Amino acid sequence: MKTVFRLTFIFLSITAAFAQQPSKKWTLTECVEHAVQNNLSVKQNELSTQLQEVEVERAKYTFLPGASGTVGANYAFGEPLLPNSFSNSIGVSSSATLYNGNRTKNALIFAKNDVEIGQLAVEELKSDLAVQVVSAYMNVLFNREGVIIAQDQLSVGQKLLDRMDELVKAGVKAQNDLYQVQATLAANEESLVTAQNNLELALLELSQLLQVPFAGFDIADMPVTVDEAKLKYDNSEMIYNKALEWRPEIISANKQVENSDLEIANAKAGNLPTVNATYSFRTNYFNAQDAVSQSGYFKQLADNRGHSIGILASIPIFDKFNTKLNTQRAQVQKLILENALETKKVNLQAEVERAYIDAKTSLKTFDAAKKSVEAQEEAFRTAQERYNLGILTSYDFEQVRNQLVQARSSFIRAKYNFLFKSKFLEIYYGVPITL
Predict the structure, then answer these.
(1) Which CATH number is correct for 27-64+99-270+316-429, 1.20.1600.10, 3.60.15.10, 1.20.1540.10, 3.40.50.300?
(2) What is the mean pLDDT of residues 37-45?
């Protein structure tokens, strides 16, 4: 019985200890790192790259000569004019390609480029995923501030209700004014519920993006301030030029063009001869039933040894124009890939220019929203003083308060929009993601 009590006590202690542990608060850096390391699509592409690495090893081994061995045994019997006999043969042969128009070398380079293209595809996927995480993370921060604003409005509404109740009891205000303030307070409570629900949905979206359980998921407290809002870059051209140096889709497209040159070279190699070197070794043993005298097994193997070395050149004469057509096809394929590369460059430049204009516009919007909040806060302070003195009606005061709420909402929306747009420019420039 004492043992049972001890085990129960230990179990409850461990449970309480785990219950007291605070849930993890995810930072932006942790979110991005977790997403790119654990995303199933990223892992799938990484596995595909591993397959391409196997092909590189295969291409390397094609430079080595091939070798094979043969062992044969034969027993002949039943022919009237021939004695029963047993024979045994042993042989080894090897062949190596001395020249094939550099097709073996090109195949190795092609395979290595394919590995790089696969790795670049993974990096492109990670970059796109990081942008999604940043957007979802900022959406959580935005909705968290929305909850704070709703809580502040609810607190103000409760104070207004208390003040109105005092004024009604004092006979300064009518009972209908109290009902209006109560209705406004109920609307504030509803706004808070809506804001909290939006925050939950934003957290859910981020947790699903990270592929982690939603229960207990939260991000770290990270007050975001924009004291000196300004763009870090003078123009979009410098961002575009920097992006051309590192963007995975651009480097990958260049690699594909390089591979097309190898395809052309391999196609033209169809007009070139192929030279192979061969070597073989063989020996045999023969034993007839009525032979007068014959050597032993191992002596025959030693005496019957033979070697052969040869060079074989295969020279194309007429291949039904296959080499010509394959070359033309490879050249057209190169033009297609070059066009795809230029298309990606044009699309990248358009994306950068659009992002730069969006960032400039968001900065102007942020500055205007900041001035609007400052003006509305002053208007609200004055209106609150007049309302407390009974000079301003509850309806007029509510209008001023709603304008302040809208200004604050517009401000936080403008703030996070500017932060995301400016962060987007940094991503194009190749700056590591931080907040």
Answers:
(1) 1.20.1600.10
(2) 90
